[in-house]
Amino acid sequence: MAIRFPEGFYWGASTAAHQVEGNNVHSDFWLMEHLEGSIFKEPSGDAVDHYRLYREDIALMAQLGLNSYRFSIEWARIEPEEGRFEQGAFDHYRDVLAACKEFNIMPIVTLHHFTSPQWLIRAGGWESEETPARFARYCEQVMQELGDDIPYACTINEANISIGIAKIIKRHQAQGSAQVGINTDAMANMQKYYTAMSHAFGLPPQEVHSFLGARSEKGLEVIFKAHMEAREAIRRVSPQTKVGITMSLYDIQSIPGGEAHAAHALQEEILQFIPYFIEDDFFGLQNYTRYVYGPDGYIPPAVDAEKTQMGNEFYPEGLEAVIRYAFKHLNKPIIVTENGIGTDNDERRVAYIDRALQGLHACVTDGIPVLGYMHWSLLDNFEWQLGFSKTFGLIAVDRSTQERQPKPSAYHYGNLAKSNEL
Hints:
- It contains 15 helices and 14 strands.
- By secondary structure, it is an alpha/beta fold.
- Strands 5-4-3-2-1-12-11-8-6 form a 9-stranded parallel beta sheet, with helices on one face.
- It is globular and about 60 Å long.
């Protein structure tokens, strides 16, 4: 028996500017990708040329049956030098928004998705007390130019991401400690890279603070203050735009004896930050898998558990649990701004989508206001340090020609969107 979604439900997909646009030459990541000894598997280069092909991509979304698109505006394009705002960049994103309107695609705009202007890093990056004001100024300029066409704005993508990164690094270091040779080589390579980064930014290595770097408590506060100051700036110049933030959330579970570890993880990853976004209009929720805790802490997935290309446990049921938890503590509308799977087996992507949406629908049935679902991602794209090796997209891209090829999962998901039912 089919299950129906609410009328007006947002069926969409997400991208991030640096991962799809190409040639984001003024960003910190572009610089870091091209350093000697870079930890990036390959540079982003032309990426999937979305900066040029955005109109065709948006038209393809509409053809598939989707009605919304979450994408990001690149700060480094808008403000390549501090205080110098590029009209050509504003015009480009105005055209992207116009294409969304032409094809009846509702835009959800993210104002910061991991990458920052190089000048910001040289000015102290995401540990500087000046960054919230600089970020708010950029957001205000964007909304003055484009706000009339932006119904939803996410200030910062995965504002809590550094916490998860620190945990993953710690686990890898622990696992590698028995392999001294490998670990030593990796540390030596990282040291070379940090030295190169230091020279490139003209700062001591410990003062290079990109968004995805290690965070101090002060740095976390800087990020969330940036969100609050940006929210006020957006409301001042574009009061009709609904403002939120997105957070990376695991479905945190425990077995007997692990309850305290799980409670600590929840406090660390979301609960401590709630005061910063309690005044937001909506909450952007992002989930990919679960974490299980036992008496000794985190329990890795079983050896025989199905895993994604990212090494995550295949666990679409996590989405329902995270939606319920977030709504319990926030009591505000939710948009699933990312949920998906890195896999080269598209049948498993179809299964992931269906099972995730079943859980989402159960939440809606229970009265939780979930406004929409943005699948990650629209296109196979540049997966940061891992280069183009991971395939999250509904649409494959032949990067030698930049030709798009929708996968069976794209047609499957599009048919769900067209029928508004699962």
